[in-house]
Amino acid sequence: MLNLFAANASADSTIITATKGMSRSTAQSDASDAEALWSQCLGIIRDNVSDQVFKTWFEKMRPIKWDGLQLTIELPSHFFYEWIEQHYASLLQKTVQKVLGPKAKLQFEVVVDDEATTPEKRTVKLPGLRGASQPSLPFSESKPTSQQKTGPSAHYPTYFNPRYTFENFIRGENNQLATSAAIAVADNPGKTKFNPLVIYGPTGLGKTHLVQAIGNRVLQRDPNARVLYTNSEKFTMEYINAIQTNKIPDFTNFYRGVDVLIVDDIQFLGGKEKTQDMFFHTFNALHQEGKQLILTSDKQPKDLADLDERLISRFQWGLTTDIQLPDLETRIAILQQKSMEESIDLPGDILEYIGRHVTSSVRELEGCLISLLAKVTLDSRELTLELAKEVVRGVSNSASSRTMTIDDIKKEVSAYYSLDQALLSAKTRKHEIVLARQMCMYLAKQLTQTSLKSIGMHFGGRDHTTVLHSCQQILNYIDTDKKVRQDVDFLKKALRG
After folding, report:
1. Structure pTM?
2. Cis amide leading into 223 (omega within 30)
3. Beta bridge partners of 135
């Protein structure tokens, strides 16, 4: 992963720009242009981070100047600068270069003295994104000589985040199989039955972390390996650029020359027929040569819309496994890990409170922790349970939803079918009770973040295989029984308010 920010943020590397002599109208125009351009950047950033992260960090950035090549942004503190550098460098780089052009530069003015009388004394200017942009076509970089081809390529792009490793990935019941398969592939790429390895699940659960951990381990074990991480949108744009610049052979040779190809978010290939055709042939060529393919998606391959059946069948050649929403214990473990990485000692009551009330994704957990850290560090607030509750309320309000529980579902379903709620956990095989119990389990899996094991425990200690069977039964009923299909629709609407 390239360091997108300057490595040294000391006074020696600051950039001082003179503002004397600039006319008032020119300065106002520059500021107006900066605000308009930064507003476009924020529109993209908002779609890629949680509301809490956006409010905590990006809303506090203030655009100051745009000179046609460099955008200057004011940040409230040096800590703020360091946090942005560490966590959002890649997002900022992609956004700024998309809005402002591939040669655009970003400069930060970091506030060091609020009471200073002049801008020069009030802030220090630090370089943001590096002036040299990444090439739009990775295969257009300097080609190695014939003597270099057998060794590591100094110009070969990998795009891995070094922080994404197996060591700091929290393993739980929700991702057990996916993690085990990922480690097996990383230790022996292309030599296992898990080729391709497809990991699917909702956004924000750690799919990208896991597949990048594979890439990092492969390179750690074999620095000469050609390992490429990309996503379907980038693959598509590179293919379009290759067509426009008559570099299809370069594109084809580049992608078919990798040892491990990791493609994130394959669902976005949907509807792009020419790109799918190119990816189909790339997939075939790599697979036939025993190269490892790793893919992620938000759904199972068979459920992806507008995707060629040929591709779907190939995605199912290896192992397809999901990452589910983490249970309470895993959420608390994730919070502990993240707090350790940020050198924060969170008391147990705060960890448990956040873990119990922030349940929709790992990304939301991280956003909650970031907000808590910001309030303690930037606002000098005391780290207390009340502060944690305040932060969690902010996250819940931004999500505009109340956390649904299995007890809510049991209550609604038992009332709908006119049954005693206790019967849902009883050991009886009466059809009407079995159906109601299966309906509860199905709705719990659909509408909550509870693990299969935990769902089973709410119904008389049944195991996860019983839960899976119940969910499948309801799905079968939905396809064949109009009454059950109506029941499902009614209960979903009732539970969602």
Report:
1. 0.55
2. no
3. none
